[in-house]
Amino acid sequence: MTLISIIILIIACINYINLSTAKAAQRIKEVGLRKVIGAYRWQLIFQFLTESFIINALAVIIAITIIQLTATPFNRLIGKELFTLAMFDLEYVEIILIIFLCCIIISGIYPSVVLSIQNPVTALKNISGRSGKRVLLRNILVGIQFIASIILITGIYAVSNQLSYMNRLDLGFEKEQILTLNIPRNPEYLNRVESFKQSLLMEPEVLYATSSNSIPGKGTPIGQNFDRISKTDQSSESFIRLFPFISVDPDYLNTFDIKLIQGRNFMQDEALDHDAVILNEQAVKDLGFENSEEAVGAFIQWTDWNATLRVIGVIKDYFHEAPKWGIGGIILQNGGYAGVISDLNAIRRPGEFLSLKLKIQEMQSTVCAIQAEWDRAFPEIPFDYFFLDEEYNLQYGEDQQLGKIFGIFSLIAVIIACVGLFGLTLYSMLRRTKEIGIRKVMGAPIPNILRLLTKESFVLLIIASLIAFPVAYWRINIWLENYANRIEITPWLFIVPIVIVLLIALAIVAFQTIKTALANPVEALRYE
Fold first, then answer.
1. In a shared domain, residues 396 and 368
2. Given phi > 0 = left and psi -120 to 50 = alpha, else beta, which region is 203?
3. Which of 92-101, 205-214, 426-435 has the highest mean pLDDT?
4. Residue 299 backbone phi and psi in degrees, to 5
5. Do 427 and 373 sit in the same domain of this protein?
6. Do the domain assignments include residue 403?
């Protein structure tokens, strides 16, 4: 946001410089008269800097007013309390003054110098000196605006594509129609979970129910150290890794529709599988197994508790956390830890989740029925639930906020650039009205005039694109490094923004050109 705000200020200052220098010809006589009657150069510079000061002062007042009017919705958008009226303390005043002074210097110095150096003789003859250099400078400044606009639009397009890509990813599990209940962090309540779960399965709208100490979208338990053990000699092969160790029941896979690709699921009788674990595909790789077939039936060492566990199955990889973070190794364990370690409560997390797979029909009545069962099982605690798809999507919140904020401020920057280009084109057309009139009298068709006058903008845009693309690629590539699953940077990521900027710029230039070209040439030439 800081970078975008700087770009917006630069574009605005460029507009002021361009329009000020473009209108310099209209003020040549004014400068000449002031010099003839004794005005010093520093007085002229002071005059034009004062004009810049007044414009920037008005801009500061309007900006602060807009900030106060939009503070609440903006804070709601970003999810943070950044701006309120009371927050304009000394620190903020200092920042505003620094920005204010910088804008005055950037936008006011060059126009004031250009206007103050005019020779009074040539000025009174209404002849502008060194116009070619000023035109070159204006073209450079317009090119900078094109560069900034292309970079910003490319950034918006990249953010949008990345968010869309993550939303389209196959998560490897089902998060729709999953209602999850928060079981209080108390061993006393955990003992009632199984009977409560069985009562819920009697409801016709409840398809599956599973209890676990972690669910997708809610993070993972503290990692535990595991090591691979050979099936033959039980000797360690040095594949120690840190894995989330998730306690689940046998219905976990069915409830979340997680695919079992090798081996079997846990048995309902916890005692029969007290030392059994299920690995995901990534855990199989991290523990050094060549494939899922080799992993099933093998043993792994729980080094933190010096316990030996046997692998009974392998599940397909799924995004337990947001796709942004990628897929890590996961080990599922059947229920409690009886028979594995002696101190059951030393590692078992007291917090639990009870997740229910529901039918689509009669959702509201089903929730009411579940609440009624809850009140019977846990009368002393409130009913606390959420839908998994909504909770899981909260992990995208930061990226979605980034996309919205980036889009809004980039749009503002592009609009400001378009306004500047519109004003500069309008002034250019006014200066070339007679030229266009002469060309029409000599028989030039409107398409030829349009091509002649838009050629310069087109060339500027091509040059700006060649400069903007490497910068945009560099910044986008750095940003995408934050994502384990990310889009490929293809040529289309740059072609679309350049086409958008090209269409906007040519539409602005063409509008003014056609308007001037359609005018009666007699109106332009009648005073000659």
1. no
2. beta
3. 205-214
4. -120, 145
5. no
6. yes
pLDDT level of residue 7 (50, 70, 90 thresholds): confident
Question: Which of the residue ranges 169-173, 327-331, 483-487, 513-517 would you say has the lowest mean pLDDT?
Answer: 513-517
pLDDT band at 350 (very low <50, low <70, confident <90, very high): very low
Lowest mean pLDDT among 116-120, 137-141, 279-283, 365-369: 116-120
CA-wise closest residue to 119 among 32, 54, 44 = 32
Pair 303, 440 in one domain: no
Beta-carbon contacts of 107 under 8 Å, excluding residues fewer than 6 positions away, are 12, 13, 16, 17, 20, 52, 55, 56
Residue 60 phi, psi dihedral angles, 5° rounding = -65, -45
Judged against a pLDDT cut of 70, whether residue 507 lies above it is answered with yes
Residue from 474, 488, 524, 411 nearest 153 by CA: 411
Residue 122 is predicted with a pLDDT of 62
Verify that 515 and 475 share a domain, yes or no. Answer: yes
147 Cβ partners below 8 Å, 6+ apart?
Answer: 464, 467, 468, 471
Are 160 and 237 members of one domain? no
**SS percent in the chain: helix, strand, coil, step 5:** 60, 10, 30
Domain count, the chain: 3
- The predicted-structure confidence for 427-478, as pLDDT tens digits, reads as follows 777 677 777 778 777 877 877 877 777 777 788 888 888 999 899 999 899 9
Inside any domain, residue 315? yes
- Residue 179, in any domain of the structure: no
Better-predicted residue by pLDDT, 508 or 197: 197
Range of the domain at 29: 1-129
Our CA dihedral for 270, 276, 280, 283, rounded to 10 degrees, sits at 140
Q: How far apart are CA 178 and CA 199, in angstroms?
A: 17
Residues 6+ apart with CB under 8 A from 77: 401, 404, 405
User: Comparing C-alpha atoms, which of 353, 418, 2 is closest to residue 178?
Assistant: 353
DSSP string, 381-414: S---EEEHHHHHHGGGHHHHHHHHHHHHHHHHHH
Q: Are residues 314 and 399 in the same domain?
A: no
Report how far residue 99's alpha carbon sits from residue 106's, in angstroms, rounded to the nearest whole number.
10
**Same domain, yes or no, for 406 and 496?**
yes
352 located within any domain: yes
Structure-block tokens of residue 97: 């003054």
End position of a domain, from candidates 350, 380, 410: 380
Q: Is the pLDDT of residue 347 over 90?
A: no
Which of 114, 129, 144 represents a domain boundary (last residue)?
A: 129
Q: How many CB atoms lie within 10 A of CB 386?
A: 17
Phi/psi of residue 180, each to 5°?
-115, 135
Contacts of 415 (CB under 8 A, 6+ apart): none
Question: Are 485 and 468 in the same domain?
Answer: yes
